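User: Structure please.
Assistant: Input sequence and predicted structure:
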Amino acid sequence: MINAEDGNSKARRAAHTIPSKRFRLATLGAAVLLVTGCANESVSPMGAASAVDPMAAAAMAASRPADETAVVNFRQEEHGPGVVEVSWEPPTYTSERLPLRDYQVRVDWEKWRSIPATASRERFTGVDGRRYRHEIRARFGDADNGFNGKKSTIYATAAGSAPGAPDAPQDLKSKLLGNDNVRLTWKVADTGGEAHRWEIEIRSGVWVSTGGDRPRFTYGPHRAGVTRSYKVRGANSHGTGPVTIIEVTREDLSSTPPGVVQNFTWTPGSRNNEYILSWDRPANFDSDDPITAYRIYVSDNCALNAYLQPYRPSGSQVSISISVFVGFGAGEQKDFAIRATNSAGTGACQTATRG
């Protein structure tokens, strides 16, 4: 148990292990906080649901400068070897309808985790003598109608001997994207020096740099039918660390465009000129060659001179519903049509029915 003073009163705080094995954490604030478990995010209960409309929440967020939603004076406190402590003051943004809900924090690009709005500092013990990337953002309102404040970032340095070059990246994963690209992601090792940048071998003897410390890299083209090994290593002023290797295969495509979009309907929206369009993806969806875009037309025959901005789905969405605005009265009968596209081509036209 760690004892600490907060203002003129003493509060107890308990250390616990966060997802990185590197740290033991204690969170301080105006109230006593006992933190347990290793969840990446734990959101405090909010009680009764807010009556704030999502559009009103967005409007209120947009009405204030972004800097007002950021924490104030995010800084590192001075401590001895093996300790890093960061502190902050609450944002200047205030709203009775969208009060400060909590903070989200993360270290070295790990997953965001939630801490109470009463917190004002975090201490990490047993750390190596190097820099650590700390990020924090405030959240306002409730889970349904709130918004995230502006993110703040600092690099805090722990006193002590530097551990040298970075250790090998951990948990290296790949994701095939629909535009012939591949995205690599990994976790920062719990030991070793700080990676100022990451280097990736995209083919034998050819290395490229991310130019920064974010553990993510997108490369292309990685075409269908190709298997390729990627090597990833960290680098800093001490040199380059050991590599982690992943083999990625993109299967041959069937060269089959998407089928007809299913269950395409429209309904009038609540605002003037608004229409709600809903549909399901084609029945022949191929996860190795996913839908890259849906083209929506204000016509019943997919006329090229009457299409809206393409809708680009996230991942492998099955059912989609969006709001569009067309220059006619709300609820007026209107023709809409849609076609799905992947790397093999564009599917057949499907006309919407009124839902």
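The first helix runs from residue 54 to 62.
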